[in-house]
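To the wet lab folks,

You asked to see what we're planning to order before we commit. Fair enough. Below is the target structure as C-alpha cells, and below that is the sequence we designed to fit it. If anything looks off to you, flag it before the synthesis order goes out.
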C-alpha cells in the first residue's frame, strides 16, 4: 500500500464556550496534538498523516476522527473521551494499524480496540471498492 493514509481530527469538537465565544483549546484540538505526537514516534508514521479539520459535522458526538485512504472505505468515529487523550490516541493508532492492513479498510467490530467498537458514526464506501458487509 503505497498511498498515504489520513486520520482527520475535528478541531471544533468539545470546545469550551462562554458568552458565545470559544475559550481555551477544544478537546478536538488537544486530541489532534496528542495524536500527532504519538504518531511521530509510531511505526505508522511512514504510512499515516494526521490532519486537522475545522468541523466534521458530528457535533453531538465529540470528539470525532476519521480514517481515509484511496480505495478504502472511510470510517468516522465519535464519542471519543477527551479526558483520557493518551489512552484514546493509543486506541486510535491501534485501529489505524488494523485499517492500514485491510485492502478495503474494512474493520470488524470484534477486531477494533474496545474504545472504538461502539464509536462508529458512519462508514462511507470507497468509489473504487464498495463495502460489502
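Sequence we intend to order:
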Amino acid at each position: 500500500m503505497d498511498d498515504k493514509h489520513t486520520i482527520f481530527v475535528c478541531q471544533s469538537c468539545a470546545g469550551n464556550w462562554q458568552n458565545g465565544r470559544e475559550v481555551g483549546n477544544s478537546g478536538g484540538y488537544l486530541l489532534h496534538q496528542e495524536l500527532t505526537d504519538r504518531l511521530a514516534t509510531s511505526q505508522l508514521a511512514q504510512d499515516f498523516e494526521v490532519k486537522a479539520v475545522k468541523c466534521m459535522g458530528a457535533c453531538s458526538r465529540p470528539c470525532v476522527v476519521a480514517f481515509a485512504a484511496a480505495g478504502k472505505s472511510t470510517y468516522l468515529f465519535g464519542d471519543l473521551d477527551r479526558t483520557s487523550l493518551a489512552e484514546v490516541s493509543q486506541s486510535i493508532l491501534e485501529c489505524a494499524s488494523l485499517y492500514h492492513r485491510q485492502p478495503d479498510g474494512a474493520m470488524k467490530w470484534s477486531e477494533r480496540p474496545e474504545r472504538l467498537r461502539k464509536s462508529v458514526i458512519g462508514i462511507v464506501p470507497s468509489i473504487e471498492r464498495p463495502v460489502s458487509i
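Structural context that might help your review: The helical segments are 27-40, 85-101, 114-117. The first helix runs from residue 27 to 40.

Thanks,
Computational group
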